[in-house]
Amino acid sequence: MAAVAKAKTKTKQPLSAEPDTPLEDVVWGAFAGDPIFLEAMKLGRKYRESLRPKANAKRKSSNARPRH
Prior knowledge:
49% of the residues lie in helices and 0% in strands.
């Protein structure tokens, strides 16, 4: 019963507008060395690079008449 009373008083405390520690300090380095995270970054980079136009890509010629 004491645990319930303690939890109840804890929930009634007002929330502070500013956190004690900035979020970037909490999150910074959270995924350092994580192989799953590194694989996700590699796949994301590969996908973004696939969306870029190729350096040697030539435009398709159209059969339309010239505009001038």
